[in-house]
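Please, structure for the following, as tokens.
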Amino acid sequence: MLRFLCRCLMLLPVLWAPAVLAQLPDAQPQYPSTPMPIAVLQGLDKITARIYTFEAPVDQTIGFGTLKVTVRACRKRPPEYPPESTAFLEILEQRPEQQAIALFQGWMFASSPGLNPLEHAVYDVWLIDCKTSSGGASAPRQ
């Protein structure tokens, strides 16, 4: 009888924990974000060691070397919340006279560029910001 009670007591946390956890608030707070029409990206050409800053309007494809970058969504938190910009990108590599190869499809985060990076031998691309109006692309930084 004592063994039975001990086993029941051992199972109590297993049976009780899901009910308690279901009532707890989410550990990660949910912040509102606003869709923006333009993503500001930076690209590194590893051969020339130059960094280019360029703007990519949502749903338009732009070129960076042999890469074709399409931003599908760009979202930014309001200023009263912790800063964060996120963008859903599709990146293809289009070499001359070859089929396009899909290299990346997913979300990039401006605050954590290493969280979900483009892995490529020649180019790096990462998100800087999302914004509402275009200011033009910059020249390469030395």
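The radius of gyration is 23 Å. The chain has one helix and eight strands.
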